[in-house]
UniProtKB/TrEMBL annotation:
Domain of life: Eukaryota
Species of the source: Lactuca saligna
Protein name in the entry: Uncharacterized protein
Any Pfam family: Plant_tran
Length: 163
């Protein structure tokens, strides 16, 4: 094995060794097991399998890309990847994500979705807010120091607020 000077080199060497040890394409069962590990819902697996069946050679990219992003390896690899290869990987990965998740997540939010988002935001942060923007949320500041009260009080509200 050649000497490896960084994590990206180690991943490249690992892929070379993997290709030598396993010179075959993924089977449907192997892809199914990998997709289960990724955390897809059971009803999402058939569509993901159909999409990946046409792109078996690229299946490893789908499974290794999130791990590499999580490890911070992708930024190290950018020097080693050509622009065309990087664009192809991102395009293909985006197409996979779209194909699997577009019906559930990539639509205009319904009233139920909005209510669920408001509730989740309030549980997490302790105050209600607007979707997509905190700068329009006005919170009353009950423990504002007296010296600052005039500076942070709006006339129409009558008490100090945090914007």
């Amino acid at each position: 094995m050649k000497s490896v000077d960084n994590v990206a080199g180690a991943i490249r060497e690992g892929n070379v060794i993997f290709d030598r040890a396993y010179p075959r394409e993924y089977t449907g069962d192997e892809i199914y097991r990998e997709l289960e590990l990724v955390g897809l819902e059971p009803h999402e697996l058939p569509r993901a399998l159909n999409f990946l069946a046409a792109n078996q050679a690229k299946a490893r990219t789908l499974f290794s890309c999130p791990l590499q992003i999580q490890m911070g390896v992708l930024k190290d690899m950018m020097g080693a990847l050509s622009e065309r290869t990087a664009v192809e990987y991102v395009d293909w990965f985006s197409a996979c994500v779209y194909e699997v998740f577009h019906e559930q997540y990539l639509h205009k939010p319904t009233q139920r979705d909005i209510e669920r988002l408001y509730l989740a935001h309030e549980e997490r942060h302790g105050f209600s807010g607007m979707l997509g923007s905190l700068d329009c949320t006005h919170l009353a500041c009950g423990k504002c120091p007296n010296a600052w009260r005039g500076q942070f009080t709006r006339g129409d509200i009558g008490e100090p607020i945090i914007v």
